[in-house]
Amino acid sequence: MTVDVPASGESEQLGPAETDIDVGATVEDDDDGTSDPQPTRWGRWVLEWLAVLVVALVVAVTVRAFLVQTYFIPSPSMEPTLMVGDRIAVDKISYHLHDVHRGDIVVFGRPPLETATADKDLVKRVIGLPGETISSDQEGNVLINGKILAQPWLTAAARTDPGPPIRSQVIPVGDYFVMGDNRGDSSDSRVFGPIPSSLIVGHAVVRIWPPSRLGGL
Fold first, then answer.
1. Does residue 49 lie in a domain region?
2. Residue 112 has what pLDDT?
3. Catalytic residue list contains 147
4. What's the CATH code of the domain at 166?
5. For residues 179 and 122, what is the distance between their CA atoms, to the nearest angstrom?
């Protein structure tokens, strides 16, 4: 094997290919070292608000389903305590912690025998408790176990027009006898009978609308 040697006698050096470079030229970089923070900040802001909205929605759904719900009053059966157009807040958890009390205003699902309205939910006041004997006398007074029940929530007009009488009956265990404060214009347990506790949605605790009538119940 023979090796060709350059005629000049000098050895050939291996190196990178020659490249013409203008030493006076500068290389420009589109990135000046600082990035525009606006897109990143905007995206972060949008994500943060989306997270807030999702959390707020979850809280609202949870509160409505298990804690508090608002209701609109569509009829005059509870006047003057609740007027048509009022809005009330209903506590949905307290009756899981204690019993229903006489005098409580409750929201409950429409009983099967209620035909005077197609409303899904009704609002009345608890008058008779489970196991009690309830009836009324000739003057329209409510009798509990034969004794007149004091009803400070009734107006003089309601006492003057007590509406239909209460048929003497024993309220079944687990049931409640409910009546409207506007006795002369209320379809209540005198019509559809005592309601089972399973129908009770919750305890109406405060009137939230209109602002002029804001207050506890």
1. no
2. 94
3. no
4. 2.10.109.10
5. 11
